[in-house]
C-alpha cells in the first residue's frame, strides 16, 4: 500500500523537492508569465505593462488571424485523417504478424521517429524541390515519352515543367504526415494487439467479409485507441512550427509560425502570448474531449 | 500476455498442413496488406536513404549521381562552427539526461510511494509539459530567460549552455517519470517491507531494493531523454543565443540557405548516432524500449 507522507517525512521531502521546484520554477513560471503577458500591452520597445486588457485576444479574432487558426485546425485534421488511413492497415499488419517479426516491424516504424525532425524535414525538401528526386524521375519519364512521341510521328510533349511540390500547402500536409505517422501507428498497434481475436474470428465465421469485420467489429472495439492516436497526432500537428516553416509557402503559415514572428520579428509579445494561450486552450479542449470519449467508452465496456 | 500469445499461435498451427491458404487473421500474408506495408516503408525510408546516399555524391548540385566521394564528410568535419554546434548538442544532451533521470525518477517514486494532499494536482502538472505545444514552451523559455532569470552572458563553456540545459530538462523529465512509473508498477512492495524488517533504513531500502529494480527503466528513460534533447529544435531555437548554437539550430540555418551535400553528410552522421542509440536501447530494455514513453505505458 501507499504510505502516507507523514510516515517518512524526510524521504518524502527529499524526493518531492527537486521535481516540484523544477516543475514550478522552470515550467509553470515561464508559462505563467506568458499568460500574464497575454493580458498586457506594449509600452515602448521592451517594456510591457500588465493592464488586464483583452485586446490581444480580440485581435486574435480578427479575420486574418482567425483564418490562420481555422487553417491550422484544418491542416492538422487532414494530417490526422491521413495518418489514420495510412497507419491503420500498418498497425493491423503488425498486430497479426508472427511474434518473432513484431519487434522488427515496430523497429521499422520507430526508427524514422527517433531520427531528428529537422533531418527528416530536410530529407523531404531534397525529394520534393524542383530539382528533387521526384521531379528528376518525372523529367526522365517526360523526356522519354516525348522522344517516343516524335518517334511514332506525334507532336512532342513540349518543354518540361517541373511539378511544384514544395513551398505550398500540399508539402506541409505531406511533411506533417511523414513526421507524425509513427505517432499514430504505435497507439493503434497497442490497442489492436489487446483485441480479443475470437470476436474477429466469430465475425468471419458468421459470414461477414474482412471489410465488414473491420468496420463493424475492429473499429468500434479499437475506438479508444484510435481516439488516443488521433489526439497524439493532432496536438503536435496543430502546433507544428518547423514543417510549415521549411516546407510551406507564403500562404501556408500556421499558428506556430505567427507566434514565432510575433515574438521574434514583429516584437509584439502580448499578442504572441495571447495566440500562444489560445493554442494551449485548444490543446486542452482536445484532451478533454478525448477524456470524455475514453470514460464513456469505459462505461460502455462495463455495462 | 502469454494467453494472447497462445491464441495467436493457434490459427497458424492449424493452417500448417494446407500451406497455400492463409489463416483467417493472417493479414500479413495477404497481398494488399503486404503492398501497403511496403509502400509505407518506402514512404518513410526513401527520403532518409536518398539523403544518406547522396552525402557520398561527388557533385555540388546534389541531384544526379556523379561518383563516390568522402569530400563532404571531410568538409563537414572541418567546419568548425558545425563541430562546435555538434559538441554543444552532445554536452547539452548529456547534462540534460543526467538531471532528467534523477529528477524524473524522484518524481515517479514520490508519486508511486506516498499519499499526500495535492497528489492528483502534481500528477496532472507533470503531464502538462508532455502535452503543451512545443512552441508555447519555447516562447515561455524565451520570456523567462529574457525577463525573470537572465542567464549570465559570457560565461565560460559549457556554463553558457545552462539556459538550454534547463529548458531541455523541463520537457524531458516528465517523460522519464512516465517510463519509471510504468516499471514501478511491477514492484512488489513486500520486498521493501522485508528490507525494513531486516533493519534497513528508508534510504538504504530505496537505494538497495527499489533502485536496482527500476534500473532498466532508468536506462530507457536516459536514452529517451538523450534523444529528446538531441532532437529538439523549437524550444532550443527560442533559448539559444548566437554563441550557443546547437546542431539542429545550425542545420536549420544551413537548410534555410540551401540544400548542400555537406548538410547531407552532417545529417548522416547524426542518423547513424541515433540508430546506434536505438539499438543500444533495444539491448538494454528489450523491445519495450521501442515504445518507451510513447506506447502502451503512456496513460
UniProtKB/TrEMBL annotation, chain A:
Pfam families listed in its UniProt record: BPD_transp_1
Main subcellular localisation: membrane
Alphabetized CDD domains for the sequence: TM_PBP2
Membrane topology reported for the UniProt record: Multi-pass membrane protein
Matches recorded under InterPro entries: MetI-like, MetI-like_sf
Residues of the ABC transmembrane type-1 domain: 69-290
Gene3D superfamilies on file: MetI-like
Compartments where located: Cell membrane
Similarity comment: Belongs to the binding-protein-dependent transport system permease family. CysTW subfamily.
Segment forming the signal sequence: none
Record key words, sorted: Cell membrane, Membrane, Transmembrane, Transmembrane helix, Transport
Keyword hit for Transmembrane helix: yes
Full protein name: ABC transporter permease
Membrane-spanning segments: 12-38, 73-98, 104-128, 140-158, 170-192, 213-242, 271-293
